[in-house]
Amino acid sequence: MAENNREQWKTQLGFILAAMGSAIGLGNIWRFPYTVYANGGFAFLVPYLVALFVVGIPLLIVEFGLGHHMKASAPLAFKRVDKRFGWVGWWAVTFVMFGIVIYYAVVISWCVDYFFLSFTKGWGNDPVNYFNNDFLKLVPPPAGGQQFTFGPVVWKIFFALILVWGANWIITVKGIQKGIEKAVKIFMPLLLGVITLLVIWSVTFKGAGQGLSYYLNPFEADWSKLSDPDLWIGSMGQIFFTLSLGFGIMIAYASYLPQNVNVVKAAAITALGNSFFSIFAAIAVFSTIGFMAYSNNVSVRELKDTTVLQLKPESSEQAILRTKLDLSRYEMLRRGSSARSIKKVFRENNLSFARYQGAFNKIPLKLSGPGLIFKTYPLTLNKIPGGALFAILFFAALVIAGLSSSISIIEAFNSALSDQFNLSRTYSTSILCGLGFLGGIPFVTGSGLYLLDVVDHFLLQYGLVMVGILESIIVGWYFTSRKLRMHIDEAADMQISSRGEFIMRIILTVLLVMTWLVLAIGPNVNTIGSQVAMLAIIAALVLMWLSEHWFDYDIKLLIPALLMFILNGALVKEINTAYSGYNVSFVMVGVMWIFVTLLVAFIFNFLSRKKS
Ligand code: PHE
Question: In b/e form, how buried is each residue of 549-581, taking b as 16+ CB within 10 angstroms?
Answer without folding.
Answer: ebbbbbbbbbbbebbebbbebbeeebeeeebee
